[in-house]
Amino acid sequence: MTPLHERRLQLTRREFLGRSGTGLGLASLTGLLDPKRLMAAPVARVGMTRLPGLPHLAPKAKRAIYLFQNGAPTHVDLFDYKPKLQQLHGKPVPDDYIAGKRFSTMTGKADGKLLLAPVEPFHQHGRSGAWVSEFLPHTARIADELCFVKSLHTDAVNHAPGISLMLSGAQIPGRPTLGAWLTYGLGSDAENLPSFVVMTSVSKGTTCGQIFYDFYWGSGFLPSRYQGVKFRGSGEPVLYLGDPAGISRTTRRAMLDDLAELNDLKLREHGDPEIATRIAQYEMAFRMQTSVPELADISREPASVLDLYGPSVKEQGTFAYNCLMARRLIERGVRCVQVMHAGWDQHRSLTTELYTQCRDTDQPSAGLVADLKQRGLLDDTLVIWGGEFGRTPFIQGNLDDRKFWGRDHHPYAFTSWLAGGGVKAGLTYGETDDLGMNVVRDPVHVHDFQATLLHLLGIDHERLTYRFQGRDFRLTDVHGKVVHDLIS
Known about the structure:
Blueprint (H helix, E strand, L loop, with lengths): L2 H7 L3 H20 L2 H4 L24 E8 L4 H4 L4 H5 L7 H4 L23 E4 L4 E4 L3 H5 L4 E8 L5 H10 L9 H9 L9 E7 L26 E2 L18 H22 L2 H24 L6 H7 L9 H13 L4 E7 L10 H22 L6 E6 L3 E2 L17 E2 L3 E6 L7 E3 L1 E2 L6 E3 L2 E2 H11 L9 E3 L2 E3 L15
Parallel strand pairs: 1-7, 1-8, 4-12, 4-15, 5-6, 5-7
Antiparallel strand pairs: 2-3, 4-11, 8-11, 9-10, 13-14, 16-17
Helix pairs in contact: 10-11, 12-14, 13-14
Protein backbone atom coordinates (compact mmCIF):
# COMPACT_ATOMS: atom_id res chain seq x y z
CA MET A 1 0.00 0.00 0.00
CA THR A 2 1.39 3.42 -0.91
CA PRO A 3 1.64 6.13 1.77
CA LEU A 4 -0.83 8.28 -0.22
CA HIS A 5 -3.40 5.44 -0.35
CA GLU A 6 -2.93 4.73 3.34
CA ARG A 7 -3.43 8.41 4.15
CA ARG A 8 -6.68 8.48 2.21
CA LEU A 9 -7.98 5.42 4.08
CA GLN A 10 -7.14 6.99 7.45
CA LEU A 11 -8.70 10.38 6.65
CA THR A 12 -11.14 11.32 9.43
CA ARG A 13 -14.67 12.62 8.85
CA ARG A 14 -13.71 15.97 10.41
CA GLU A 15 -10.71 16.35 8.07
CA PHE A 16 -12.80 15.36 5.05
CA LEU A 17 -15.49 17.93 5.76
CA GLY A 18 -12.92 20.61 6.51
CA ARG A 19 -11.09 20.04 3.25
CA SER A 20 -14.35 19.80 1.30
CA GLY A 21 -15.44 23.19 2.62
CA THR A 22 -12.17 24.76 1.58
CA GLY A 23 -12.44 23.22 -1.85
CA LEU A 24 -15.99 24.51 -2.37
CA GLY A 25 -14.95 27.97 -1.27
CA LEU A 26 -12.04 28.03 -3.67
CA ALA A 27 -14.27 26.78 -6.49
CA SER A 28 -16.72 29.63 -5.81
CA LEU A 29 -13.92 32.18 -5.71
CA THR A 30 -12.57 30.87 -9.00
CA GLY A 31 -15.95 31.44 -10.62
CA LEU A 32 -15.88 35.10 -9.57
CA LEU A 33 -12.40 35.76 -10.97
CA ASP A 34 -11.17 35.97 -14.55
CA PRO A 35 -10.20 32.37 -15.39
CA LYS A 36 -7.69 33.53 -17.99
CA ARG A 37 -5.63 35.17 -15.26
CA LEU A 38 -5.55 31.99 -13.22
CA MET A 39 -4.12 29.81 -15.97
CA ALA A 40 -0.40 29.24 -15.98
CA ALA A 41 1.40 30.33 -19.11
CA PRO A 42 2.71 27.50 -21.29
CA VAL A 43 6.23 26.56 -20.25
CA ALA A 44 9.15 27.15 -22.57
CA ARG A 45 10.19 23.80 -23.94
CA VAL A 46 13.89 24.51 -24.60
CA GLY A 47 16.68 26.61 -23.20
CA MET A 48 16.54 28.88 -20.17
CA THR A 49 15.92 32.60 -20.27
CA ARG A 50 17.55 35.01 -17.85
CA LEU A 51 15.56 36.79 -15.16
CA PRO A 52 14.27 40.27 -16.00
CA GLY A 53 16.79 42.95 -15.06
CA LEU A 54 19.81 40.66 -15.24
CA PRO A 55 22.68 41.11 -15.52
CA HIS A 56 22.61 43.83 -12.88
CA LEU A 57 25.91 45.28 -14.14
CA ALA A 58 28.19 44.86 -17.13
CA PRO A 59 29.58 41.32 -16.77
CA LYS A 60 33.29 40.60 -17.04
CA ALA A 61 32.60 36.89 -17.56
CA LYS A 62 29.81 35.08 -19.39
CA ARG A 63 30.43 31.63 -17.94
CA ALA A 64 32.32 29.84 -15.16
CA ILE A 65 34.41 26.69 -14.78
CA TYR A 66 34.96 25.66 -11.15
CA LEU A 67 37.88 23.24 -10.68
CA PHE A 68 36.90 22.16 -7.19
CA GLN A 69 39.51 20.18 -5.25
CA ASN A 70 37.62 18.07 -2.68
CA GLY A 71 39.51 17.37 0.50
CA ALA A 72 41.34 20.69 0.94
CA PRO A 73 44.69 21.23 -0.81
CA THR A 74 47.50 22.13 1.57
CA HIS A 75 48.21 25.83 1.03
CA VAL A 76 51.48 25.72 2.97
CA ASP A 77 52.86 23.03 0.65
CA LEU A 78 51.60 24.46 -2.65
CA PHE A 79 51.23 28.26 -2.69
CA ASP A 80 51.81 29.98 0.67
CA TYR A 81 55.59 30.06 1.10
CA LYS A 82 56.73 30.64 4.68
CA PRO A 83 60.51 30.53 5.37
CA LYS A 84 59.87 30.59 9.12
CA LEU A 85 57.92 27.34 8.83
CA GLN A 86 61.08 25.80 7.40
CA GLN A 87 63.19 27.29 10.20
CA LEU A 88 60.91 26.03 12.97
CA HIS A 89 60.43 22.55 11.53
CA GLY A 90 59.92 20.10 14.40
CA LYS A 91 59.32 22.83 17.01
CA PRO A 92 56.01 23.12 18.92
CA VAL A 93 53.55 25.59 17.45
CA PRO A 94 53.61 28.83 19.52
CA ASP A 95 50.55 29.19 21.75
CA ASP A 96 49.62 32.66 20.50
CA TYR A 97 49.06 31.29 16.97
CA ILE A 98 46.43 28.79 18.07
CA ALA A 99 44.79 30.46 21.08
CA GLY A 100 41.02 30.07 20.92
CA LYS A 101 41.17 28.11 17.65
CA ARG A 102 38.91 25.15 16.91
CA PHE A 103 40.34 22.24 14.93
CA SER A 104 38.87 18.91 13.86
CA THR A 105 38.41 16.13 16.40
CA MET A 106 41.44 14.39 14.89
CA THR A 107 43.60 17.19 16.25
CA GLY A 108 41.54 18.27 19.23
CA LYS A 109 43.74 20.74 21.05
CA ALA A 110 46.68 21.91 18.95
CA ASP A 111 48.85 22.60 22.00
CA GLY A 112 52.28 21.06 21.60
CA LYS A 113 51.78 20.03 17.96
CA LEU A 114 55.01 20.15 15.96
CA LEU A 115 55.42 22.44 12.98
CA LEU A 116 56.05 20.77 9.62
CA ALA A 117 58.11 22.40 6.88
CA PRO A 118 56.91 22.35 3.26
CA VAL A 119 57.52 18.95 1.71
CA GLU A 120 58.94 20.39 -1.55
CA PRO A 121 60.82 23.65 -2.26
CA PHE A 122 59.16 26.86 -3.46
CA HIS A 123 60.30 29.22 -6.21
CA GLN A 124 59.09 32.53 -7.62
CA HIS A 125 57.73 32.51 -11.15
CA GLY A 126 56.94 34.91 -13.97
CA ARG A 127 56.98 38.67 -13.97
CA SER A 128 54.65 38.63 -10.98
CA GLY A 129 57.09 36.66 -8.85
CA ALA A 130 54.35 34.40 -7.53
CA TRP A 131 55.51 31.68 -5.16
CA VAL A 132 54.57 28.18 -6.32
CA SER A 133 55.85 24.85 -5.03
CA GLU A 134 57.73 22.34 -7.15
CA PHE A 135 54.66 20.14 -6.68
CA LEU A 136 52.96 22.24 -9.40
CA PRO A 137 55.41 22.97 -12.26
CA HIS A 138 52.70 23.50 -14.91
CA THR A 139 50.72 25.91 -12.73
CA ALA A 140 53.97 27.75 -12.05
CA ARG A 141 54.44 28.34 -15.80
CA ILE A 142 51.13 30.20 -16.07
CA ALA A 143 51.56 32.16 -12.82
CA ASP A 144 51.21 35.48 -14.65
CA GLU A 145 47.73 34.45 -15.85
CA LEU A 146 46.53 33.72 -12.32
CA CYS A 147 45.14 35.75 -9.45
CA PHE A 148 46.12 34.07 -6.17
CA VAL A 149 43.84 34.71 -3.19
CA LYS A 150 45.89 33.72 -0.13
CA SER A 151 43.64 35.10 2.59
CA LEU A 152 40.54 32.95 2.29
CA HIS A 153 38.96 31.74 5.52
CA THR A 154 35.82 29.77 6.35
CA ASP A 155 33.53 28.81 9.23
CA ALA A 156 33.57 25.06 8.59
CA VAL A 157 36.09 22.60 9.95
CA ASN A 158 34.90 19.38 8.26
CA HIS A 159 34.61 18.44 4.59
CA ALA A 160 30.93 18.13 3.69
CA PRO A 161 29.89 21.27 5.62
CA GLY A 162 32.91 23.11 4.21
CA ILE A 163 32.15 22.16 0.61
CA SER A 164 28.47 22.97 1.11
CA LEU A 165 29.37 26.38 2.55
CA MET A 166 31.75 27.15 -0.31
CA LEU A 167 29.32 26.10 -3.03
CA SER A 168 25.92 27.01 -1.54
CA GLY A 169 26.58 29.56 1.19
CA ALA A 170 25.43 27.30 4.04
CA GLN A 171 26.99 24.39 5.91
CA ILE A 172 23.68 22.53 6.09
CA PRO A 173 22.61 20.97 2.76
CA GLY A 174 19.50 22.24 1.04
CA ARG A 175 20.52 25.60 -0.44
CA PRO A 176 21.04 26.22 -4.19
CA THR A 177 24.65 25.94 -5.33
CA LEU A 178 26.59 28.50 -7.36
CA GLY A 179 25.85 26.83 -10.70
CA ALA A 180 22.13 26.67 -9.90
CA TRP A 181 22.04 30.37 -8.97
CA LEU A 182 23.87 31.28 -12.18
CA THR A 183 21.52 29.36 -14.44
CA TYR A 184 18.47 30.60 -12.52
CA GLY A 185 19.57 34.21 -12.88
CA LEU A 186 21.37 34.28 -16.22
CA GLY A 187 19.73 31.44 -18.12
CA SER A 188 21.68 29.46 -20.68
CA ASP A 189 22.91 29.86 -24.24
CA ALA A 190 22.89 26.08 -24.75
CA GLU A 191 19.71 24.74 -26.34
CA ASN A 192 20.94 21.16 -26.69
CA LEU A 193 22.88 20.73 -23.44
CA PRO A 194 22.15 21.34 -19.75
CA SER A 195 22.99 24.80 -18.45
CA PHE A 196 24.92 23.41 -15.46
CA VAL A 197 27.11 20.31 -15.86
CA VAL A 198 29.13 18.47 -13.21
CA MET A 199 31.94 15.95 -13.65
CA THR A 200 33.84 14.12 -10.90
CA SER A 201 37.13 12.25 -10.66
CA VAL A 202 39.39 10.64 -8.07
CA SER A 203 43.10 9.88 -8.26
CA LYS A 204 43.81 6.18 -8.63
CA GLY A 205 44.95 4.42 -5.50
CA THR A 206 44.00 7.21 -3.14
CA THR A 207 43.02 6.33 0.41
CA CYS A 208 40.93 9.50 0.73
CA GLY A 209 37.35 8.70 1.67
CA GLN A 210 35.77 11.82 0.17
CA ILE A 211 32.28 11.25 -1.23
CA PHE A 212 30.59 13.29 -3.96
CA TYR A 213 27.22 14.15 -2.45
CA ASP A 214 24.49 15.23 -4.86
CA PHE A 215 23.84 18.38 -2.84
CA TYR A 216 27.24 19.69 -4.00
CA TRP A 217 25.49 20.58 -7.27
CA GLY A 218 21.89 20.73 -6.06
CA SER A 219 19.28 23.38 -6.77
CA GLY A 220 17.95 23.41 -3.20
CA PHE A 221 14.60 25.16 -3.09
CA LEU A 222 14.93 26.46 -6.66
CA PRO A 223 13.03 24.45 -9.28
CA SER A 224 15.01 21.28 -9.93
CA ARG A 225 15.63 22.13 -13.58
CA TYR A 226 18.46 24.36 -12.27
CA GLN A 227 20.39 21.59 -10.53
CA GLY A 228 23.62 20.32 -12.06
CA VAL A 229 23.51 17.40 -14.47
CA LYS A 230 26.24 14.94 -13.56
CA PHE A 231 28.07 13.34 -16.48
CA ARG A 232 29.24 9.80 -15.85
CA GLY A 233 32.94 8.91 -15.73
CA SER A 234 32.66 5.79 -17.89
CA GLY A 235 30.61 4.64 -20.84
CA GLU A 236 28.00 7.07 -22.11
CA PRO A 237 28.20 10.41 -20.23
CA VAL A 238 24.41 10.27 -19.93
CA LEU A 239 22.35 7.06 -19.80
CA TYR A 240 19.77 6.06 -22.39
CA LEU A 241 21.06 8.21 -25.22
CA GLY A 242 19.82 5.68 -27.76
CA ASP A 243 16.17 5.09 -28.64
CA PRO A 244 14.69 1.70 -27.72
CA ALA A 245 14.65 -0.93 -30.44
CA GLY A 246 11.81 -0.34 -32.88
CA ILE A 247 11.31 3.32 -31.92
CA SER A 248 12.22 5.83 -34.62
CA ARG A 249 13.15 9.44 -33.99
CA THR A 250 9.84 10.51 -35.53
CA THR A 251 7.91 8.26 -33.18
CA ARG A 252 9.93 9.46 -30.18
CA ARG A 253 9.28 13.09 -31.16
CA ALA A 254 5.54 12.46 -31.40
CA MET A 255 5.48 10.70 -28.03
CA LEU A 256 7.25 13.59 -26.32
CA ASP A 257 4.93 16.14 -27.93
CA ASP A 258 1.87 14.25 -26.68
CA LEU A 259 3.42 13.87 -23.23
CA ALA A 260 4.23 17.59 -23.12
CA GLU A 261 0.62 18.44 -23.87
CA LEU A 262 -0.56 16.24 -21.00
CA ASN A 263 1.98 17.80 -18.66
CA ASP A 264 0.91 21.27 -19.82
CA LEU A 265 -2.61 20.46 -18.73
CA LYS A 266 -1.35 19.44 -15.29
CA LEU A 267 0.80 22.56 -15.08
CA ARG A 268 -2.21 24.76 -15.83
CA GLU A 269 -4.24 22.87 -13.25
CA HIS A 270 -1.71 22.86 -10.40
CA GLY A 271 0.92 25.49 -11.23
CA ASP A 272 3.66 23.25 -9.80
CA PRO A 273 7.08 24.39 -11.14
CA GLU A 274 8.29 20.80 -10.99
CA ILE A 275 5.86 19.96 -13.79
CA ALA A 276 7.50 22.68 -15.86
CA THR A 277 10.84 21.10 -15.00
CA ARG A 278 9.59 17.72 -16.19
CA ILE A 279 8.52 19.15 -19.55
CA ALA A 280 11.83 20.95 -20.05
CA GLN A 281 13.91 17.93 -19.01
CA TYR A 282 12.09 15.54 -21.34
CA GLU A 283 12.80 17.94 -24.18
CA MET A 284 16.42 18.37 -23.14
CA ALA A 285 16.89 14.61 -22.94
CA PHE A 286 15.64 14.27 -26.53
CA ARG A 287 18.07 16.90 -27.75
CA MET A 288 20.97 15.42 -25.78
CA GLN A 289 20.60 12.17 -27.70
CA THR A 290 22.31 14.00 -30.55
CA SER A 291 24.38 16.65 -28.78
CA VAL A 292 26.12 14.50 -26.15
CA PRO A 293 27.68 11.93 -28.54
CA GLU A 294 29.04 14.82 -30.60
CA LEU A 295 30.33 16.53 -27.45
CA ALA A 296 32.09 13.39 -26.22
CA ASP A 297 33.82 12.70 -29.54
CA ILE A 298 37.29 14.21 -29.04
CA SER A 299 38.83 12.42 -32.05
CA ARG A 300 39.09 15.68 -33.98
CA GLU A 301 40.96 17.53 -31.24
CA PRO A 302 44.49 18.32 -32.52
CA ALA A 303 47.38 16.55 -30.81
CA SER A 304 48.77 19.94 -29.81
CA VAL A 305 45.61 20.64 -27.81
CA LEU A 306 45.46 17.20 -26.20
CA ASP A 307 49.09 17.59 -25.16
CA LEU A 308 48.17 20.67 -23.14
CA TYR A 309 46.04 18.56 -20.80
CA GLY A 310 48.52 15.76 -20.21
CA PRO A 311 48.83 12.03 -20.89
CA SER A 312 45.52 10.95 -19.29
CA VAL A 313 43.33 13.30 -21.35
CA LYS A 314 41.94 10.50 -23.50
CA GLU A 315 40.99 8.39 -20.49
CA GLN A 316 37.36 9.02 -19.63
CA GLY A 317 36.75 9.82 -15.98
CA THR A 318 40.13 11.45 -15.35
CA PHE A 319 40.52 15.05 -14.27
CA ALA A 320 42.36 15.78 -17.53
CA TYR A 321 39.51 14.42 -19.65
CA ASN A 322 36.98 16.38 -17.60
CA CYS A 323 38.94 19.62 -18.05
CA LEU A 324 38.93 19.14 -21.82
CA MET A 325 35.20 18.39 -21.70
CA ALA A 326 34.68 21.56 -19.66
CA ARG A 327 36.19 23.62 -22.47
CA ARG A 328 34.04 21.84 -25.05
CA LEU A 329 30.92 22.42 -22.94
CA ILE A 330 31.40 26.16 -22.50
CA GLU A 331 32.09 26.47 -26.22
CA ARG A 332 28.58 25.12 -26.75
CA GLY A 333 26.93 27.67 -24.47
CA VAL A 334 26.86 25.90 -21.10
CA ARG A 335 26.76 28.49 -18.32
CA CYS A 336 28.59 26.67 -15.52
CA VAL A 337 30.79 23.56 -15.41
CA GLN A 338 31.84 22.13 -12.06
CA VAL A 339 34.83 19.77 -12.29
CA MET A 340 35.37 18.09 -8.92
CA HIS A 341 38.42 16.03 -8.01
CA ALA A 342 38.67 14.18 -4.69
CA GLY A 343 41.67 12.89 -2.80
CA TRP A 344 43.27 16.00 -1.25
CA ASP A 345 42.57 14.85 2.31
CA GLN A 346 46.17 14.07 3.26
CA HIS A 347 46.01 13.26 6.96
CA ARG A 348 48.74 10.62 6.61
CA SER A 349 49.89 10.84 3.00
CA LEU A 350 51.63 14.15 2.28
CA THR A 351 54.78 12.39 1.13
CA THR A 352 52.93 9.88 -1.07
CA GLU A 353 49.44 10.79 -2.28
CA LEU A 354 50.02 14.54 -2.53
CA TYR A 355 52.42 13.80 -5.38
CA THR A 356 49.69 11.79 -7.13
CA GLN A 357 47.07 14.51 -6.65
CA CYS A 358 49.33 17.18 -8.09
CA ARG A 359 50.41 15.00 -11.00
CA ASP A 360 46.78 14.28 -11.89
CA THR A 361 45.54 17.88 -11.63
CA ASP A 362 48.45 20.27 -12.25
CA GLN A 363 48.90 19.95 -16.02
CA PRO A 364 45.16 19.69 -16.84
CA SER A 365 44.38 22.84 -14.82
CA ALA A 366 47.15 24.82 -16.48
CA GLY A 367 46.31 23.30 -19.85
CA LEU A 368 42.69 24.40 -19.57
CA VAL A 369 43.74 28.01 -18.92
CA ALA A 370 46.20 27.92 -21.84
CA ASP A 371 43.63 26.33 -24.15
CA LEU A 372 40.98 28.91 -23.29
CA LYS A 373 43.46 31.70 -23.87
CA GLN A 374 44.59 30.49 -27.29
CA ARG A 375 40.93 30.27 -28.37
CA GLY A 376 40.07 33.75 -27.16
CA LEU A 377 37.74 32.35 -24.50
CA LEU A 378 39.69 33.20 -21.34
CA ASP A 379 38.69 36.87 -21.29
CA ASP A 380 35.02 36.05 -20.71
CA THR A 381 35.38 32.69 -18.95
CA LEU A 382 35.99 32.69 -15.20
CA VAL A 383 38.13 29.76 -14.04
CA ILE A 384 38.18 29.03 -10.29
CA TRP A 385 40.58 26.58 -8.60
CA GLY A 386 40.40 25.65 -4.92
CA GLY A 387 38.95 23.56 -2.13
CA GLU A 388 36.87 23.96 1.01
CA PHE A 389 39.67 24.99 3.43
CA GLY A 390 43.42 24.62 3.93
CA ARG A 391 45.61 22.34 6.03
CA THR A 392 47.45 22.91 9.27
CA PRO A 393 51.05 24.15 9.35
CA PHE A 394 51.65 21.61 12.12
CA ILE A 395 51.98 17.89 11.57
CA GLN A 396 49.41 15.19 12.04
CA GLY A 397 51.31 12.01 12.80
CA ASN A 398 54.82 11.15 13.91
CA LEU A 399 57.62 13.46 12.76
CA ASP A 400 60.03 10.52 12.73
CA ASP A 401 57.83 8.51 10.35
CA ARG A 402 58.11 10.52 7.13
CA LYS A 403 56.08 8.06 5.07
CA PHE A 404 52.96 8.90 7.08
CA TRP A 405 53.30 12.66 7.49
CA GLY A 406 50.00 14.50 7.30
CA ARG A 407 48.17 17.75 8.00
CA ASP A 408 44.72 18.24 9.50
CA HIS A 409 41.84 20.51 8.38
CA HIS A 410 42.53 24.24 8.65
CA PRO A 411 39.69 26.77 8.20
CA TYR A 412 41.61 29.88 9.25
CA ALA A 413 43.62 30.45 6.07
CA PHE A 414 43.83 28.87 2.63
CA THR A 415 44.55 29.70 -1.00
CA SER A 416 42.55 29.60 -4.22
CA TRP A 417 43.35 30.99 -7.64
CA LEU A 418 41.26 32.62 -10.34
CA ALA A 419 41.94 33.10 -14.03
CA GLY A 420 40.28 35.01 -16.87
CA GLY A 421 36.80 36.49 -16.55
CA GLY A 422 37.91 39.98 -15.54
CA VAL A 423 40.25 39.15 -12.65
CA LYS A 424 43.64 40.81 -12.26
CA ALA A 425 46.20 38.46 -13.76
CA GLY A 426 49.54 38.20 -11.98
CA LEU A 427 48.12 39.39 -8.65
CA THR A 428 48.73 37.85 -5.23
CA TYR A 429 46.06 39.12 -2.85
CA GLY A 430 46.00 38.82 0.92
CA GLU A 431 48.58 37.54 3.35
CA THR A 432 48.86 35.08 6.21
CA ASP A 433 51.19 35.22 9.19
CA ASP A 434 54.75 33.87 9.04
CA LEU A 435 53.55 30.31 9.65
CA GLY A 436 50.56 30.33 7.27
CA MET A 437 48.29 29.90 10.28
CA ASN A 438 46.09 33.02 10.31
CA VAL A 439 45.14 35.77 7.87
CA VAL A 440 46.86 39.06 8.72
CA ARG A 441 46.05 41.20 5.67
CA ASP A 442 43.00 41.58 3.38
CA PRO A 443 40.88 38.69 4.70
CA VAL A 444 38.40 37.14 2.26
CA HIS A 445 35.57 35.16 3.80
CA VAL A 446 33.77 32.50 1.76
CA HIS A 447 30.79 34.84 1.34
CA ASP A 448 33.09 37.63 0.09
CA PHE A 449 34.53 35.19 -2.43
CA GLN A 450 31.04 34.23 -3.62
CA ALA A 451 29.95 37.86 -3.87
CA THR A 452 33.01 38.59 -6.02
CA LEU A 453 32.39 35.62 -8.33
CA LEU A 454 28.80 36.75 -8.88
CA HIS A 455 29.95 40.33 -9.49
CA LEU A 456 32.35 39.17 -12.20
CA LEU A 457 29.39 37.48 -13.89
CA GLY A 458 27.29 40.64 -13.76
CA ILE A 459 25.24 39.83 -10.66
CA ASP A 460 24.72 41.94 -7.55
CA HIS A 461 24.77 39.24 -4.87
CA GLU A 462 22.30 41.15 -2.70
CA ARG A 463 19.71 41.38 -5.50
CA LEU A 464 19.69 37.80 -6.80
CA THR A 465 17.24 36.26 -4.33
CA TYR A 466 14.55 33.60 -4.14
CA ARG A 467 11.68 33.67 -1.67
CA PHE A 468 11.30 30.44 0.27
CA GLN A 469 9.38 29.77 3.48
CA GLY A 470 8.72 33.47 3.97
CA ARG A 471 12.29 34.66 3.52
CA ASP A 472 14.36 35.97 0.61
CA PHE A 473 17.42 33.75 0.29
CA ARG A 474 20.63 34.42 -1.62
CA LEU A 475 23.94 32.63 -2.22
CA THR A 476 25.80 34.82 0.27
CA ASP A 477 23.15 34.40 2.99
CA VAL A 478 23.10 37.82 4.77
CA HIS A 479 26.84 38.44 4.41
CA GLY A 480 29.48 39.08 1.80
CA LYS A 481 31.17 42.03 0.17
CA VAL A 482 32.73 42.24 -3.28
CA VAL A 483 36.55 42.26 -3.26
CA HIS A 484 37.03 44.93 -5.93
CA ASP A 485 40.82 44.69 -5.70
CA LEU A 486 40.65 41.33 -7.51
CA ILE A 487 38.82 42.80 -10.50
CA SER A 488 40.63 44.27 -13.48
